[in-house]
Design brief:
The protein is of the alpha+beta class and 113 residues long. The protein has one domain (23-110): 2-Layer Sandwich (Translation Initiation Factor IF3), CATH 3.30.110. Helices cover 45% and strands 34% of the residues. The chain contains three helices and four strands, in the order αβαβαββ. It has helices at residues 2-21, 34-46, 58-75; strands at residues 24-28, 51-55, 80-93, 97-110. It has a four-stranded mixed β-sheet with strand order 1-2-4-3, with helices on one face. The longest helix is centred in the N-terminal third of the chain and has 20 residues, at 2-21.
Amino acid sequence: MDKVNEETKEQSEKNNQQLANSPLVFRISKTSNVVKTSDAISNSILEGKRIELRAIGGGAISQAVKAIATAKGRLAPAAINLVTDIGFGMVTIEGAGEKTMMVFKLIKFELGG
């Protein structure tokens, strides 16, 4: 019985570690509020969280880029820059099939001073 409890505890710790390492995902739409999104990005970066923005369509991509640029400006006084790793991903949407999305992974880069 103790072995089962130890294995369960180890698996629980492993799951918690995976959750801690996974990024905070923001799904951006063409109607996303740029200021609120940039505030959420800035606050999350200051808390040490990893951020990933996902956007489908031109309007959503535009909002994501504006939110990233605004967050960079908000973080600059704290000597923090955001580096963005941009790529593509696939998502299945019920009723619309498979769609291509843009994925923006934000990386915190502290500026020396």
